[in-house]
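Shipment paperwork, digital attachment
Item: protein structure file
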Amino acid sequence: MITLESIREYMRDQLEADRGRQAVKVSGPSVEAALENAAIELGVPVGSLEYEVVEPGSKGMLGVGRKDWTILAYPAESKAAAGQAAAAGGAEVRGEQQKEIPDKDGEVFVRLTSEGVFLKVTKPSGRGEKVAERRALEKLSLRGVSRYDGSLVSKVVRHADGEYIKVGDYQFNPVNQSTMSVDVTDMEMKAYMTVTPPGPGGADLSFEEIRGLLRSAGVVHGIDDESIRRFIDYPVYNEKIVVAEGDRPQNGADAQIIYNFDVYREQVQLKEKNGRVDFRELNLVENVEAGQILATKKPPEEGVAGRTVTGKILPAKPGRNLQIEVGKNVKLSEDGMSASSMINGQVLLLSGKITVEPVYTVEGDVNFKTGNILFLGTVIVKGNVEDGFTVKAAGNIEVMGSVGKCILDAEGEIIVHQGILGKNEGKVRAGSNLAAKFIENARVEVDENVLVSDGIIHSLVDANKRILCQGKRASIVGGRLRAAMEIHAKTLGSVAGTETILEVGIDPKRKEKLSQALQRKQELEKSLEELVRNISTLENLKKVQREFPEDKQNSLSELNDRRSEILSELEEIGRTINEINSYLQSIKISGKVSASDRIFPGVKIFIKNESLVVRNEFKNVTFSLEDKEIRMIKYEPIDQVFSRRFAHASAPY
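Attachment content:
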């Protein structure tokens, strides 16, 4: 007798067989041609193929209406089964490599419904044991089932496909059916079900029945279907089981200010050089540039509304909004979402406000406590700059005390209220003027004027305009001073005849570049001379030897390449020297050297390309260039404009 269950069994068997077959849909002018195409795609001989005609072909009339044959081709069953086994074996190996399979025995489940007795058997995993038929029969017996199809039970156990299959009937008694109650608690955020066990002849609750009972109790949201399915397989009676949970509202996150600078500058950050910590590099200043984004705002979130198990909406609170607070020299964008610096300077967070200070003030000395200073504005040091430290500023530098063997570098002016004691290593560079009480044993470069009240002693000083030294002890003794327009002091040189070199009417930077170019030219010419000798030696050796060694040939090639490089560089340096000389010759300012009190023997004066060595002591004189000759004329005082500027810079503090 053919039953519905036997049909299901046959369909399952066919499905398993079909799963192992790989089929392709192909076309061709004939069935044979289509099979050949299928054999190529499947990689098997034509004789090993089975096929089904999907759509027959037609030759048409005189070629009109012609249509190809379309077939579904697949390997013969035996080979397909072998391929399936191989694929399963390969998949098993790959699975073992990817993830360890847990050991779990197969299980048996029995459910009684109004339609009959249903049996489900699952496959084992890992090294778990398969379900024995005896075990399934025991389960049926425990549920009081005696009328079942034994052969069907055997098939269910054998296939173990994890689906409920009807295997028998029982005397259904609806009075003893399992019942369920629903409790909604926790402000309607949770729903529990309590199920009673079925009595004799009573049926188990189905998934749809449990769902329907929850809906009848008003539970429509957050239902845990997995929990219901788990209960169907592993029922727990007379206990509360959570079957639904609501979604609590998620309040929106507050707005957030993201600072693009370190707001905790008091935390010292040390740098390493060659594996050692450099305590001079403390990085206490954070520089910013005009237009730089200092902070951005992440807007508040609206939040996500919640929902109870009964479907009620629970509104969420939006996040709290925040504003970027700005102080001096900081601009807020039109939409308020970012803040940027209006100037170059130091960025600070003061009382919650972003501020950019154009001036960085050091309350005491620049030493190991402050470290080196690099600032994109003006730096004011209320103490001294100690030996070995560096102060660099994009604006001005003002030092209330003295400057030792250190480096000062400013794009603007430098003012040192006391003196500069370079100790033959200190360097000072200013993009504008330099004003100091005195300069001693230091290297100084300025783009405009040097203004000194007491004196310049044994120093190298270059100024693109003037070097002015005026005061009670305003003297220039020793060293080399170069200025484009004027060198002026109360006294020049010393009674001891100390060599003092004074150059005017030149561009100090170009002159220095010319000096470096000439030195480099001399070095290259010396190297070239040695190269030529070595090349000549190897070439003579090559002429007298029948077989010239390969290593010597390589050396000769390298020497020739090096000679070409030197000749090219010499040509470039020659052009540079000519350009600088032409420029220096074209400077119209001749320059002058003046001593308001006296000039001593030993002073060497250079005006443009002319020179003069002072042999005698003179008072109140000025030296200038006339007809390509340095002449001594009546003393010419400092221009009134520079006198006022000088008086301001050299005033006592």
